[in-house]
Amino acid sequence: MGKKSSLPLIYLIGALLVAIGFCCPMIKGLFGTSANGFDFIRNAKEGGFVAIGSILIFAGAIACIIACFVPQLKGLRLIFAIVALAGAVILVIGFTTNGGIYKAIGKQLLKRAMWGFYMVVVGIVLSIVGAITNK
Description:
The chain is an all-alpha fold.
């Protein structure tokens, strides 16, 4: 009997890390407060890169989780992981180009990053690796 691959599990763990990390504190604010992904969406009143990137990260993570349990979506797993990655890139661009508090945080992004941020990054990498190697 053949050995069953654990790569679908890696994909699921990566997607769960993204979703959980999105809900956890991601960035330490300028005055000691912390913000999670939903705070980014709530504070971007007129849309912008920060809100769009946050929505794409969370939507990509939820789509990845759903794709793990719906066999018809197996072929779209890589696309869902790339959506989360694109959201992360757009979020970072939003932090570095938007004005005000976002730009001040963006200049020190890695210094102000909290454990939720790192969970999202590791989760995106795991889900992309799991999707690529599980063809």
